[in-house]
Amino acid sequence: MSPEYSVAIAVTFVLVIPGAMLAFLVLWWRQRRKARKAVAEAFQLSGELTEKNAKLAKAMELGHQLHEEKGVLTERVAGLEERFKSVLDVEAEVSKLQTQVKIETMKIDDLRNSYVEKRTIYDRLIKEVAIFDEKLAFAEMGVYEPHFEFNDSEEYKRNIEVVRASQKAMVTAKTAAVCPTAWTVEGSTAKGQTMTNRNIKLTLRAFNNECEAAIANCRWSNVNAMEKRIATAFTQINKLNESNHVSITESYLKLKFQELFLTHEYREKLKAEREERAELARAAKEEQKLIRDMERAEEEEARYQRLLDKAKAEAESAVGPKLEAFNTQIEMLERDLAEAHAKFERAQAMAEKTRSGYVYIISNVGSFGSDVVKIGLTRRLDPADRIRELGDASVPFVFDTHAIIYSDNAPGLERALHAEFEPVRVNAQNYRKEFFKATLDEVEAAVKRLAPDAPFFKDIEAQDYRETLAKRRSTLLAQEMAPETLLPEAI
Predict the structure, then answer these.
(1) How many CB atoms lie within 10 A of CB 437?
(2) Which one, 83, 210, 314, 345, has least CB within 10 Å?
(3) Positions in the chain short of pLDDT 70
(4) 208, burial (CB in 10 Å: exposed 0-12, middle 13-18, buried 19+)
(5) CB atoms within 10 A of CB 314
(6) Strands, E, within 305-414: which ranges?
(7) Which positions are tagged coiled coil (predicted)?
């Protein structure tokens, strides 16, 4: 090895070795510093890890406890579910039913809304159908106002025949139904006229059938409904014939209305005449009874006169106690004869003067309620017979009598009393029903004004009615007390 090379190596060694050592020392110092820092961090992490491990152990212990508690709670829940299974099912069912209720409520609301709409349509249709229905409410159709004022049923009958003859004349004159269009069929005017005549004939037949049905079914309660039925048939048939230009005339319609009104009023007049004949027959019967009463009273007076004459004749030859007995008998017979004579004169007066009679005022609280009186007239010799007759079978309780007023003009007194209470007449349609809604004080005031000397009794005995009420109250009281004293058959 050459000296230069050795020197170079030595120099290099001298120069490199310290630098390398210095670099090594610097690197070592840095690594040591890092190591110390890492050791410090390791110690710190070790402490944190220890702390975490402690917390983890504590958490694991707590988790174990919770797991055990969960098992216990699960067992308890299972037991409770088993115990309250029915309750849970009920709650579920309740919830289900509540949901169903909401659904059904919505359906009900929908149905109600739909009902309102359909009810409106129904009401409209029922009014249209009601025209052909005899059961239409009388109040809805209103009160029929008479169109004619003939004196008897024969006049109505004659006018019905006149109206029907006018209808036939219109049909013959071809003015009942008309067709202003001159139709042609297959180019023939004659065929067109034949078709028109056939259409008019069918139209009138349909309309006449409707009118005849309405007139035949006409009653006091549906006259206005039958009028509307005819008017509806007129409108509908004319509407159906719009295409062939055939129409029923207004004049023919008016004749049909007249026939309807005349027929109805004719029937009502017949009914009134029947009632009038019945009233006349009753009056004639009462007059015959008055004559018989007069004859019986006359016979009774003659019998007492014979007995009195006989007693006087026998008394002429009697003496002592026997004479006193005859005198007593004669006094009694004279008194009976005077009563019989007065009875005969009253019966004779009533038989000869048909306007004389008794006006009676009676009430029946059990049958008609309070403040309802009947004001009637009878020509019977004993007016109480008529009152008993009224209370025998037609009403459940007997009448109480408040006044029996004899008058030479009994019909006039009766009419005056009726006029006094006309606004409160119970039956405003049938004037033979003589009941009035009035208090006894009001009736008494009217009687005192129209017949000042007539006695009036305001007492209402109503014995049967009051005894009936008492019996019903006793029965109800017994029924109310019975459940408190009887034990039920089962509980």
Answers:
(1) 16
(2) 83
(3) 1-16, 18-19, 84-91, 127-148, 280, 284, 319, 349-355, 393, 477-491
(4) middle
(5) 14
(6) 357-363, 372-378, 400-407
(7) 223-350
Q: How many Cβ atoms from other residues are within 10 Å of residue 436's Cβ?
A: 23
Report the pLDDT value the prediction gives residue 312, as an integer from 0 to 100.
81
So what's the pLDDT on residue 407? 85
Q: Per the structure block, which two tokens stand in for 42?
A: 């390791």
Phi, psi of 458 (to 5 degrees): -95, -5
**Distance between CA atoms of residues 371 and 460, nearest Å:** 11
Those residues whose C-beta lies under 8 Å from the C-beta of residue 138, and which sit 6 or more positions away, are 221, 222
Q: In sequence order, which ranges of 353-462 are alpha helices (DSSP H)?
A: 365-368, 383-392, 410-420, 440-450
Contact 206, 244 (CB under 8 A): no
* DSSP state at residue 34: H
Helix and strand numbers, DSSP H then E, in the chain: 13, 6
- Bridge-based pairing of strands 247-248 and 177-178 is antiparallel
User: Taking the CB of residue 434, how many other CB atoms lie within 10 A of it?
Assistant: 19
Question: Own/partner pairs for 17-21, CB < 8 Å, 24+ apart?
Answer: none
User: What pTM was computed for the model?
Assistant: 0.47
Compute the distance between CA of residue 269 and CA of residue 263 in angstroms, rounded to an integer: 10
